[in-house]
Amino acid sequence: NNGQVEHLIGIDNCRAYDVAVMPDGRIVSVGTSFTTGQNDFDVAVVRYLPDGSFDTAFSTDGKVTFSWSITADIGYAVCLQPDGGILVGGAEGEESPTVSIVVARLLENGDPDLSFGTAGTFRSFVGVSPTRCGGLALDGDNNILVAGTAGASSADRKSYLCKLLPSGQPD
After folding, report:
1. Which residues in the chain land under pLDDT 50?
2. Which of 60, 112, 115, 141 is the most buried (most CB within 10 A)?
3. Contact 34/41 with Cβ under 8 angstroms?
4. Can you give the pTM of this predicted structure?
């Protein structure tokens, strides 16, 4: 495959926006895909083995899709935690008037971690739409740093930064 992998998740319009490599060489990619036949994006997370094949220990087929809302949800950022948890950051409701930053945590097997944040997610809407997560990182204490933007036009767009405890609660 010349070091390249191409595949479809869901039914249409797959997009990958970020990637991270686990200490053992497995690869996690996050993005979005149509999964229901409507023009409605769901978050898509894929884990690969180092050879590029799907890691079937993640979900049962190496792929997880989920929604944060009833409108378009997009995963823009991924960050790996030392305990094997996978943080996914993105935007909830891309086609709604109030787009929120959302961070979710998946367990190493691909299941949602319902102990993270509130019922598995952290949400933030700062009163300006859209608000999107563009990056995730861990600090030296494994607190979660969430970076993004808030505002629709260049005249009102601002940078966004938030610090979460490892539990998904604001610091």
Report:
1. none
2. 112
3. yes
4. 0.90
